């Protein structure tokens, strides 16, 4: 199953992370430090949503859940 929000399409993003970012004494070490890949995952949850009078289960990110709650599409959050 894909780790993607059904509403906005938010998905996993890869970025770089410097391991030795802090420190006063290591001035050149910041440039020499290894840069590792970091995975940024969206906060996905399975939610039952009422759309067009029908109840469907969707994978939504946290920002879409709050947007749906304001629109009135989610009455009560029910996590499986």
Automatic annotation (TrEMBL):
InterPro entries, per database record: Bacterial_rp_bL28, Ribosomal_bL28, Ribosomal_bL28/bL31-like_sf, Ribosomal_bL28_sf
SUPFAM superfamilies reported in the protein's UniProt record: L28p-like
Single GO term (MF): structural constituent of ribosome
Keywords, sorted A to Z: Ribonucleoprotein, Ribosomal protein
Superkingdom of this protein's organism: Bacteria
One annotated Gene Ontology cellular component of this protein: ribosome
UniProt xrefs under PANTHER family: 50S RIBOSOMAL PROTEIN L28 (PTHR39080), LARGE RIBOSOMAL SUBUNIT PROTEIN BL28A (PTHR39080:SF1)
Family recorded in the similarity comment: Belongs to the bacterial ribosomal protein bL28 family.
Name of the protein described by the UniProt record: 50S ribosomal protein L28
Organism of derivation: Candidatus Woesebacteria bacterium RIFOXYD1_FULL_43_18
């Amino acid at each position: 199953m894909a780790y993607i929000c059904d509403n906005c399409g938010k998905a996993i993003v890869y970025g770089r992370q410097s391991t030795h970012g802090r420190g006063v004494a290591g001035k050149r070490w910041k440039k020499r430090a290894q840069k590792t890949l970091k995975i940024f995952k969206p906060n996905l949850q399975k939610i039952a949503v009422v759309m067009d009078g029908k109840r469907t289960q969707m994978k939504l990110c946290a920002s879409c859940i709050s947007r749906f709650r304001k629109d009135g599409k989610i009455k009560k959050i029910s996590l499986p």
